[in-house]
Recover the amino acids of this structure.
């Protein structure tokens, strides 16, 4: 009798799984198409122009101070100059945006991601002066389409701020003029959605005091310690803000005791 009952229960369960394969599993609560629609609501209207050499990164050594890193991975020449509340006097350096064009016959209507690497003097809000590489990626596939879109020169676009996901650790490049009395560092490859609003430095092995650094220009921050020598190694703390919320990141002893000007030092992780 027990064997017969077990057999009947097994048949009922098997039938239930065949009728409804998700019977034993919790459904995914996210509706992908709805999520994408909400994301699309954030697009803003703007315009794009382009500058720099063909297949280039706009400018090498632009107002953010990244130098030839804009040519290399992970920037990969997909860069843009901007002004106003996008460039933010340099605090917008390294921020990421998606742009797409839909109103020109040569547009692919697909979005591309660009990194702010330079200042566009006189650009109004929503004006992206793209590298030729990034501008060309807005076109349909084929060199003819790319050339025609580049020839157009000035096009309407849609854009939105997105989180950077460089999939590498944050880099701190010491300025060539940095010294123990006037320390200058450039910050590169920070992940996340917000801008870096505050940078602090902690010296030595035993100190617990974080000293505020000042924004210099582009992606550079500095600390002059009133003529007192700063004792390495240096830990650096970043505060990133967006939409009224902040988060911090600490790169402990990222600048070693034997640091040199003009060298790049890597954190162990990223925002």
């Amino acid at each position: 009798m027990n064997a017969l009952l077990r057999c009947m229960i097994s048949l009922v369960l098997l039938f239930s799984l065949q009728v409804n394969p998700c019977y034993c599993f919790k459904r995914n609560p996210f509706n992908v198409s709805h999520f994408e629609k909400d994301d699309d609501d954030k697009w803003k209207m703007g315009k794009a122009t382009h500058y720099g050499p063909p297949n280039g990164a706009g400018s090498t050594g632009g107002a953010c101070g990244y130098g030839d890193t804009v040519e290399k991975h992970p920037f990969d020449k997909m860069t843009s100059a901007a002004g106003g509340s996008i460039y933010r006097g340099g605090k917008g350096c390294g921020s990421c945006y998606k742009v797409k064009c839909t109103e020109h016959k040569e547009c692919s209507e697909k979005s591309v991601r660009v990194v702010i690497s330079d200042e566009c003097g006189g650009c109004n809000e929503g004006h992206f002066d793209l590298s030729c590489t990034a501008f060309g990626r807005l076109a349909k596939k084929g060199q003819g389409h790319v050339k025609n879109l580049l020839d157009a020169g000035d096009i309407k676009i849609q854009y939105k701020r997105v989180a950077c996901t460089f999939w590498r650790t944050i880099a701190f490049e010491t300025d060539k003029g940095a010294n123990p009395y006037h320390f200058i560092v450039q910050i590169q490859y920070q992940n996340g959605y917000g801008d870096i609003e505050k940078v602090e430095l902690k010296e030595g092995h035993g100190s617990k005091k974080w000293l505020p650094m000042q924004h210099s220009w582009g992606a550079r921050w500095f600390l002059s310690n009133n003529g007192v020598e700063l004792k390495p190694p240096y830990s650096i703390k970043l505060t990133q803000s967006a939409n009224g919320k902040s988060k911090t990141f600490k790169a402990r002893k990222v600048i070693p005791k034997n640091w040199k000007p003009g060298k790049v030092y890597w954190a162990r992780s990223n925002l």
User: Anything to note?
Assistant: The chain has five helices and 15 strands. The first strand starts at residue 44 and ends at 51. Residues 1-40 have pLDDT under 50 and may be disordered. Helices lie at 2-19, 32-40, 84-87, 132-136, 143-152.
